[in-house]
Amino acid sequence: MLQSRALVIALILLLSTTLPEVHSKSIFERDRRDWLVIPDAIAAYIYETVSKMSPKAGQFLADAAQTPVVVVTRNFLIRETTKISILAEQLMEKIKNLWYTKVLGY
């Protein structure tokens, strides 16, 4: 039982999600900056499946997802991926401008 709880906690940390935010966006309606939608959707699917089989285990998952360690980790990942995404967008703009000015001569 302890091993399965440890596995569930590790899975939650890996997917780094909080349940209230899981259903906020669809996978197909995401912004480029929102890279955590897919792990959130996977976590929601796992939660729903576990909850259907065992409501007690589902409640344990919900409680574990709200622990400070998971919330802090998820917030850190969101913050850092947002920074990386903004830098990637700026780089793409610079490459596009360079392509148009130097290569195509616009």
From TrEMBL:
Lineage from the top down? Answer: Eukaryota, Metazoa, Chordata, Craniata, Vertebrata
Name the species this protein comes from. Answer: Leptosomus discolor
Q: Which residues are the signal sequence here?
A: 1-24
Q: What does this protein do?
A: Protein component of the very low density lipoprotein (VLDL) of egg-laying females. Potent lipoprotein lipase inhibitor, preventing the loss of triglycerides from VLDL on their way from the liver to the growing oocytes.
Give the InterPro entries listed for this entry.
Apo-VLDL-II
Name the source's superkingdom: Eukaryota
Q: Which residues cross the membrane?
A: none
Which protein is depicted? Answer: Apovitellenin-1
A GO molecular-function term, please?
A: nutrient reservoir activity
GO BP, one example? lipid metabolic process
For this chain, the family text in UniProt reads: Belongs to the apovitellenin family.
| Record keywords, A-Z | Signal, Storage protein, VLDL
GO CC annotations, alphabetized = chylomicron; very-low-density lipoprotein particle
Pfam families per the record?
Apo-VLDL-II
